[in-house]
Amino acid sequence: MKVTIDNITIEVEPGTTIMQAARQIGAHVAPPAMCYYEPLKGSGGKCRACLVKVTAGSEKDPRPMPKLVPSCITQVQDGMIVENTTSPQVLEARKGVVEFLLLNHPLDCPVCDQAGECHLQDFTFEHGVSKTRTIEERNTFEPQDLGPYIQLNMNRCVLCYRCVYTADQVTEGRVHGVMHRGDHAEISTYIEKAIDNDFSGNVIDVCPVGALTDKTYRFKNRVWFTKPVDAHCDCGKCSGKVTLWYRGDEVIRVTARKNEWGEVQDFICNTCRFERKKTSDWTIEGPMKVARHSVISANKYGASSIKPAFPLKQAAEQYKQIDDNRDRSFLEPQKQLK
Ligand code: SF4
Ligand code: FES
């Protein structure tokens, strides 16, 4: 089937979604994704980060689709024409999606372990606005321990369901899920039951934000100060292919390897993740290739500082003229002292 995305035409197999077709073209055309995760069956359709405009449904029926559609669950038709970054309507809608995702978010990136590899941070940087329009109190939750290795900070969760699908599809029994509905919805375990399973640590890797973090790594370092190295071991439970994150000579974190979309290549077991933290446990392959455009790796903070218009505009908006006609009589006593 032929599909055109942002003026680039590609041929794909029937059943391909717009997101998959866009990813085949390349990162510059691929819509952002907060809930879709290719290795997890059934993921997508929750967050609306990937909305695109279909200006022609197919060659047979070239009418445009009346509303923006989620590209991760919409299959392409032959002759379909899609606009992603070329549509001002899509870009405007994404600003709204970011605003909704941040509505209850604590904006605690400076103390969040996920900062630097957080999809919400990237999404906000690329598509959000720099101001908040809300003054209402945010939903807050106490941090929860989910067993010995995983910490849940529900304040940061965007309810993407990735961790729920991971527990369903990768572990032997899911003991957590989304409780309640609407703005009461939250990820939780019944009666704070520990997530205790050989593959449970993978929920940390799939979480796009800092809601599920590794307790053995929390607050040890900022990710951009660490050195990631690909390594493998002979593991009986998983593929044993991991990334080791070094601080000096010390392995401070072990994660699964990720592809250019930030998705896990091989889910790894808890023994590799939490218990093999010595270099001697591993055969080192070499430095990890940083493929994803994270806020830090893409040097986006640098990008904003070399664009003087951005901070100047911010400063100009908050600048108050100094009133030189103020009453100066309060200076008089000092004059008298002299
Ligand atoms: S905890 Fe993370 S992975 Fe699970 S639903 Fe929330 S944001 Fe998604
Ligand atoms: S990535 Fe498509 S709806 Fe979330």
UniProtKB/TrEMBL annotation:
Record keywords, A-Z: 4Fe-4S, Iron, Iron-sulfur, Metal-binding
Pfam families attached to this UniProt entry: Fer2_4 (PF13510), Fer4_Nqo3 (PF22117), NADH-G_4Fe-4S_3 (PF10588)
Highest taxon of source: Bacteria
Domain (4Fe-4S His(Cys)3-ligated-type): residue spans on this chain: 89-128
2Fe-2S ferredoxin-type domain sequence ranges: 1-88
PROSITE patterns reported in the protein's UniProt record: 2FE2S_FER_2 (PS51085), 4FE4S_HC3 (PS51839)
Gene3D superfamilies for this protein: 3.10.20.740, 3.30.70.20
Protein's name in the database: 2Fe-2S iron-sulfur cluster-binding protein
Organism encoding this protein: Flectobacillus longus
